[in-house]
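Attaching the record inline, Q. Sequence:
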Amino acid sequence: MLKLRLKRIGRKRAPSYRLVVMESSTRRDGRPVEEVGFYNPISKQSQFDVPKIEKWLSHGAQPTETVANLLKKAEIL
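Structure, as predicted:
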């Protein structure tokens, strides 16, 4: 099953995340199918590729709880 989830990047104590589409059985920092956005929790900056996200949601990808909250805040869901 495909999931929309966060992949951690950045250094220690300075997290940054990429919003990616990956298989649910893949490890958190594994190879994604596609990268569709970015989120920085420290500066509260986020950038999402809306057409790609809508495409993957229509193909049956399920967002995780955290990603769903971010997409609701950005008024995509």
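The CA atoms of residues 42 and 75 lie 20 Å apart. The chain has two helices and five strands.

More tomorrow.
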